[in-house]
Amino acid sequence: MTDPLAPIGDGHTEVPDDVREHLIPTYIATLAELYEAEAENVAAGTLGRRPDLDELLDDGYLRELHRVMFGEVWRWAGRYRQTDVNIGGVDWHEVPGRVRLLVDDTKYWVDTATSDHDEIAIRFHHRLVQIHPFVNGNGRFGRFAAEYLVESLGSPRFTWGINLALERSALRERYRKALQRLDADQDDAKDLLGFARS
Predict the structure, then answer these.
(1) Most exposed of 78, 100, 110, 131 (fewest Cβ within 10 Å)?
(2) Each residue of 48-59: pLDDT tens digit?
């Protein structure tokens, strides 16, 4: 899957020193180089066999997925964050329990068919993004995990707005607003569902 929402950086903005110290490649100096290295790692790490439903709905597998996606770039890839973040997310010490609860909730949604496949996968994605389990890469990780989930349920993969013919910044803004709408009203997933299938 190509991620139309993946960040891109310009070749002039330098990676701050406090961020650079966590990078594995020593050549990375700009955000453009960082995002390119991440994109290459994500592409290589997600080319393998898709997990089945039981594999995917396991917090150990989710950590491994993040490690595979970002482990060639970041030293902390696949490890839950150990600091609080200023862009949402739960307190860092709650992350492991919240991910396990999400996995259990998702198994319940699937077993009881409380919603259709798309809505189950979208709600799974939304909760992963809300939890913000890792220092970075949570949106990309969450979209891939949702892709794997919806496909394992027998539905086609999401397109994440690629058919809207919008510039990346407008596409990312529409995605952000759809997430925020679901943040504000847990009963209203239609914007995020529509975006994921557009």
Answers:
(1) 100
(2) 778 999 999 999
109 near 120, Cβ under 8 Å?
Answer: yes
Q: Tokens representing 72? A: 């060639």
Q: For residue 74, list its beta bridge partners.
A: 23
Q: How far is CA 14 from CA 8, 19, 39, 59, 157, in A?
A: 13, 10, 18, 34, 35
Cα–Cα distance measured from residue 25 to residue 37, given in angstroms and rounded to the nearest whole number: 9
Q: Would residue 48 count as lying in a domain?
A: yes
pLDDT tens digits, 62-89: 999 999 999 999 999 999 999 998 777 7
Other CB atoms within 10 A of residue 75 CB: 12
Q: Is residue 2 domain-resident?
A: no
CATH code, domain carrying 44? 1.10.3290.10
Tell me the pTM.
0.93
